[in-house]
Design brief:
The chain has 104 residues and is α+β, with helices and mostly antiparallel strands. It is 26% helix and 8% strand. The longest helix is centred in the N-terminal third of the chain and has 11 residues.
Length: 104
Amino acid sequence: MRMTIAAVLILLSGGVALAVVGGGDVTLKNDGGDVVFSHESHVQMAGLGCRDCHPKIFLNTKNHTAVTMQEMEAGKSCGACHNGTKTFAVTENCETCHSKEQAK
Ligand code: HEC
Ligand code: HEC
Ligand code: HEC
């Protein structure tokens, strides 16, 4: 089973270079200012495994369904961890995720 999800994710990535960690840097466009999600900091720095996020919380950008900050505060998407308990909360630290120029 472990191999299955890894293989699926590799296929979804469309054959990106092996040096890229997971799905690499993913840009999530939204009204609060673009958010660049870094696989490198989540996997290598925070020490998370692919299965902490895939496939339950996230799949890929193609099948991405946008959630609101309100939904995140209720524990969806990034809010599954960014809740002030596991790590910094989505109710503040706006500019840590949203590009400084555009974030409110
Ligand atoms: C902290 C959560 C998290 C972890 C851990 C994580 N990912 Fe992801 N991954 C994401 C997010 C967020 C996206 C973007 C999904 C979206 O747009 O809905 C994504 C997307 C992807 C994509 C698709 C990229 C694209 O552009 O569509 C691949 C492939 C991927 N991840 C592989 C992995 C692999 C392999 C690992 C383990 C080494 C991993 N991910 C670990 C959150 C995570
Ligand atoms: C952990 C990272 C993170 C933090 C912290 C964060 N956001 Fe977001 N925000 C996102 C992501 C990712 C999206 C896009 C969601 C999607 O595409 O599913 C988003 C979407 C939004 C949106 C558009 C959707 C909506 O709810 O209207 C606004 C506006 C927004 N954020 C404002 C804020 C503000 C203001 C703060 C601080 C109080 C904040 N964000 C904190 C990651 C974050
Ligand atoms: C499975 C748990 C988990 C999920 C889901 C998650 N994160 Fe994180 N994130 C973490 C942890 C743990 C850290 C490390 C915090 C620290 O070092 O204090 C972190 C750190 C970060 C950082 C700071 C490091 C950096 O990359 O600059 C940002 C920004 C961030 N996350 C954005 C996001 C966004 C955007 C999403 C949703 C698309 C998301 N995270 C989803 C657990 C998660």
